[in-house]
Amino acid sequence: MRFLDREGLGSLLARLVAEGYELIGPTVRDGTIVLDRIEAVDDLPAGVGEVEGPGTYRLVRRDDRRVFGFAHGPDAGKRFLFPSSEVLGTIGRRNGHLTAPPAEAGAEGRRAFVGLRPCDLHAIEVQDRVFRGGPEPDAAYAARRDGAFVIGVNCTAPGGTCFCDSMGTGPVCTVGFDVALTELDHGFLATAGTARGGDLLEEAGSREATPGEAAEGHRLLANARVHMGRSLDTSDLPGLLYRNRRHPRWADVAERCLACGNCTSVCPTCFCHDVVDDVDLAGETATRVREWASCFSVEFSHTAGMEVRTSREARYRQWLTHKFASWIDQFGTSGCVGCGRCITWCPVGIDVTEEVAAIRADDGAVALEVGA
Amino acid sequence: MSAVQADARADGREAGAPARPRVAVFKLSSCDGCQLQLLDAEEALLELAGAVDIVLFREARGRSEPGPYDLAIVEGSISTPRQLEEIKEIRASARFLIAVGACALSGGIQALRNAVEYGDTVARVYPTPAYVRALATSTPVSDHVRVDLELPGCPVDRGQLLGALAALLGGHLPRRSTAPVCAECKRRGYVCVVVARGEPCLGPVTNTGCGAICPGMGRGCYGCFGPSQPPNVAALVRRFEELGDAPERARDRFRLITSSAPAFRDGLAASAGEPGRTEVTP
Amino acid sequence: MNVVAPDLHRERAEAVPMRIAVVRRIVQETPDTATYWMNLRRRADRLAYSFAPGQFNMVYVFGAGEVPISISSDPARPTCLAHTVRATGRVTNLFPSLSLGDEIGVRGPFGRPWPMREAAGGDLVIVAGGLGFAPVRPALYAAMRNRAHYRRVIIMVGARGPQHMLFARRLGTWTHTLRARGVEPHLTVDIADDAWPYGHGVVTTLFDPAHLDPRMTTAFVCGPEIMMRFAVHELLERGMGTHRIYVSMERNMQCAARMCGHCQLGPAFVCADGPVFRYDEVAELLEEEEL
To answer: For A155, which of A65, A171, B110, B187 could close a Cys bridge (C-beta 3.0–4.6 Å)?
Structure first.
C-alpha cells in the first residue's frame, strides 16, 4: 500500500491534466456536491461534509480539511459516460430522397474521474453490461469508457441513505479503478488498480505507507461499515418481488410517489432512454437525439395506440422490480448498487429499503380487488 | 395529420413554386407574451417566414389577410362575450388550430376569478363596474371549439413552438412528452431545490418544456406549464406542508398561472377530501 | 449559473446502420391498415438483407421517428419487403400519406423468429387475430414453401368484421389457393351479415371445426394480448403443452438492441428475447396487468 500526501494528489492531477485529461471531480455548487469539471486539487470540497436523508440533502462544515469527507451528491459517472442528451446522427431529405450518413464518432476528450465512490465504480460496470455487453455495442459509449482514467475513493463517511454494504459494492473500491484512495488526516492511502495507476502513483511521489497509516485506513473503513445509513436484506430479492406483484404495498407507495422520475435520473445505473427527432423548419434535416427517459413517465410504455403501465402503482413496481430482480435476469447483476441516491433525491423521500422491507414483512399478501 | 400542408405540399418536391401554408396568429385574453416568443425568434422567424406565409399577425405586421388559414395559432383565454364569437370565427377559418400558452390551455392567471364571486370582485376592483364587459369565468379555447394541438407555457417555449411548427409542416404531430420538469432539471444537472434547500417546487407535477428555467435559477417551479401526466397533487401538498407551508398556502401554490387546469383543480379537491382535512376549495 | 452540461448533444455513431427503402406498392388492407411494399435502395443492401418469419424492422419516417413493424412478406424473397401498418400513433399516422417512390429508413431485421423447425414433423397451427395476421404471414409463406416438412398446416384468422380481414380482399381465391397448396384455412369475424361465407364469432370458435391433434401440434399465436390469452387457454384445454405454443408480443421500442428499456416485459426485452416467446416463458407475465 502506498501513501500520497495532499501535494502528491495535486501533482497526480497535474500530470493527468498535462497528458490531456479533463478532470471531473466533486465540487460545491448550489449547496450541493456535484461532479463537474475541475482544474486542480483546490477545487475539491475541502472541509465539507453532508447530511443525507430521505428527500433531504444539506452540506455541513467539517472540523477538518478532508477533501472527500462526504458520501456523494446527485451525480455519478453516468452523466458523463451516458450523457443525458446525445446526438445519434442526422437524416437528410432532399427532393424526396433520404440520406442517412453513418455518423462519425465525435472526437471524445479523455476524462479522468476524481473521487468516484465504490458504488459508482460498480455502477459503471453495470452500465458497461448494458451499453457494450449486448448484441449491438454502443461504440461511442465504449470510446468514452476506454478513454477514462478513474481515481476511486473509499468511503470513510457514508451518507444517511447509503446501503452499499448490503449490496456488496462498498465501502471499499474493488473494481473499475486505476487508483483507489483512502483519505487520512494528513494524506491518502493509495492502491493501484492498473499498471498505469501504479506508474502515476510513483511519478506523483508516493511512498510506502507505514503500518500505522495502513491500520488507520482499516479502522476508518471498518467504522464506515458500522455507520452505513441503511441496510437491505437481499436474500432472494428476485423471488420476493416476482411473487409479490399483487402486494398491497404497491398501491401504498403509489399514494406517495409523484412519478417524477428523479430516482431514475440520479440512479447511476438506470439506462432507459428515448430517441427523438428534431426536424428543421425547412424539412431538410432531422437530428436524432438520444435522451434520458424514465419508466415513471406514462408515455414510456406507449404501445400500439395505448399505454401499458397507466397506474403509478404499475410504474413504481416496474422500476423497483427491474432494479432488484429482472435486472439480474437481463444482465447477470443487480441494478442497484446501494448508493441511496434515489432515497435522498426523491422529493417526497420514498425509501427503497423501506419499501422492500415492507413487502418482505408481509410476503405473500395480495391486494384486495376494489369492490371485492 | 396533413392538415397544415394539404393545400401546399411543403417539401418542394413538385416542380414550380408550391403554395406555402397560410398562417394566422390570434390573440384573445392574454399578455401577448406567447406571440412575442415568435416575434423574438429572430433568425428562426426568418426561416419560418420562408416556410410559411404569415398572413395575419397583428403584433408584427399592419396588414391582415382574411381567411381561410391553413394554420391558426391562438394565444389567450375566452374571457369576454366578444371572444365567445371570435374563437368560433377563428375555428371556422382555420383548418388546423394550435392553442398556445397557459391562458389558451387552462384560462390563465385570469381564471383565478373562476373560484370567486365575479360580481363582487368587479365591484371591488373597478370604480365603474358597468364599463366592464367580461364573462364571469376565463376559460380555455378547448372549452369552446375543437383544438388540434395544445402547447403549454407562460409563455410558450419558443423552441417547442418552432419544433411543433416544423413537425406540422412535415405532416405529423410533434412529440409531446408527459415527463415533469424534474426530468429536465436532472438532464441539465440542476440541483433539486426541494431536496437541497427545502424549497417548495411544482416541478414534479408540471409539464416539462420550459427548460427548467426557475429551478435553474435556484427557485421552485410555479407550474406555468400546467399539470404533467396525471399528477399526484395530494402527495405534493403533503410534502409542502412538511416543508413548512400552512395547509392553505401549500394548496395555493397550485392556484396561480394554471389554477383552472382540471388536473390541478381536481387534484386539490381530491386532496381536500383526505382524512384530517376539513377546509374546502372555494 | 454554471451548469454541468459538457455532454449535451455530443456526436456519436449509431450502432445499427439505417438503410433507405423505397415504397413501391401500397395495398389498402382495411380502412385503417395498409401494406407497404418496398425495396432497399442500394443494391448492396438488397443483397445483404435477409430475415426470418416473425422478425421486425425499425421503420423510420423522416422527422417523426422509428417504430417497430413486423415484416409481413415472404422470407424467401427478402428483396421485396412488406410492412403492414395500422395508423394508430404519431409515427404510424404518417404512413397513409406515403406515396409510391417515397423513401423511409429501415433498421433490422431484429428479434427472435417463429420456430419453423420446432414445428416440423407435426402439425403447424397458426392462430391470428386482427393485425396479428401480419407477423405470422411470413411463417405461412415459409410453411407453404416447405410444405413437406409438416403434416397438417392450419391457419385460423379472426377479425372484427370482413372489412378488417388482412391480406384477403379476394377471400374466395385466397382460400382456394391455400387449400390447393395443402393449407387448411379457417376464417371468422365477430360481426358479419349473411353474405359472409365463413365463421362467425371469436377466433377460438375455429378450434373445434379444425380438429386439432394436441399430441403433434405446434401453435403460433399472434394478436391482441387478450385474444392470445383466450386462444392459448383454448389450446391448453385441448391438451397442448405450454412448450408447443408460441406467442408474439408487442411493446414500445426505441433501439431494438436491449438498451432503451422500453420493451421490457418482466425480465424479457421483447426486441431481442422476443417478439416470439414460447408460451411457458411468458405465461406468468401474461396473467399480470400493466406489466
So the answer is: A171
The answer, for A101 touching chain C at a CB cutoff of 8 Å, is: no
Three cell numbers, residue A244? 409479490
Query: Could you give the CA distance from residue A106 to residue C176 in angstroms, rounded to a whole number?
Result: 58
Contact at 8 Å (CB) between A267 and A341? yes
Strand (E) or helix (H) holding C59 = strand C56-61
Percent helix, strand, coil in chain A, to 5, is 35, 25, 40
Interface test with A, best of C3, C23, C259 (most A CBs within 10 A): C259
Helix or strand run (H / E) with residue C68: strand C65-70
- Residue C63 contacts B, CB cutoff 8 Å: yes
Asked if residue A253 and residue A210 are part of one domain, the reply reads no
Choose from C1, C12, C222, C286 for mutation: most chain A CBs within 10 A: C12
Residues A40 and A151 in one domain: yes
- The verdict on ipTM greater than 0.85 is yes
Contact call for residues A66 and A47 (beta carbons, < 8 A): yes
Which chains pack against B, by 3+ Cβ pairs within 8 A? A, C
Half-sphere exposure of C27 (CA within 13 A, CB side): 15
Contact (CB<8Å) B12/A344: no
CB proximity under 8 Å: C 90-119 to B: 90-91, 93-94, 97
- C15 or A81, which is more confident: A81
Which domains, ranges and CATH numbers included, belong to chain C?
19-110 (2.40.30.10), 116-248 (3.40.50.80)
Domains of chain B as residue ranges with CATH: 22-169 (3.40.50.700), 181-272 (no CATH)
**B206 touches B220 (CB < 8 A):** no
The pTM (predicted TM-score) of the whole model is 0.93
C-alpha cell, B47: 426561416
Mean pLDDT (whole number) for B47-73: 90
* Confidence band for B67, pLDDT divided at 50, 70 and 90: confident
pLDDT in tens, chain A (372 residues): 999 999 999 999 999 999 999 999 999 999 999 999 999 999 999 999 999 999 999 999 999 999 999 999 999 999 999 999 999 999 999 988 999 887 666 666 899 999 999 999 999 999 999 999 987 889 899 999 999 999 999 999 999 999 999 999 999 999 999 999 999 999 999 999 999 999 999 999 999 999 999 999 999 999 999 999 999 999 999 999 999 999 999 999 999 999 999 999 999 999 999 999 999 988 999 999 999 999 999 999 998 888 999 999 999 999 999 999 999 999 999 999 999 999 999 999 999 999 999 999 999 998 866 543
State the pLDDT at residue C45.
Answer: 93
Residues 6 or more apart whose CB falls under 8 angstroms from that of A281 comprise B44, B47, B48, B50, B51, B162, B165, B166, B169
- How far apart CA A300 and CA A273 sit, in angstroms, is 9
* C-beta separation of B40 from B32 below 8 A: no
* Nearest CA distance, B250 vs chain A (angstrom): 14
CB-based contact A127:A81 (threshold 8 Å): yes
The full length of chain C comes to: 291
- Among the listed residues A209, A206, A150, the one whose alpha carbon sits nearest the alpha carbon of residue A180: A150
Confirm whether A138 is domain-assigned.
Answer: yes
The answer to whether the bond into C109 is cis (omega within 30° of 0) is yes
* Of residues B258, B221, B215, B257, the one with CA closest to residue B236: B221
**Which helix (H) or strand (E) is A241 found in, with range?**
helix A237-242
- Per-residue pLDDT band for B136 (boundaries 50, 70, 90) equals very high
Residue A163 is assigned to a structural domain of this protein: yes
Q: What is the spatial distance between Cα A368 and Cα A252, in angstroms, rounded to a whole number?
A: 13
B 120-179 near C (Cβ less than 8 A): 166-167, 170-173, 175
A348:B196 CB<8 A: no
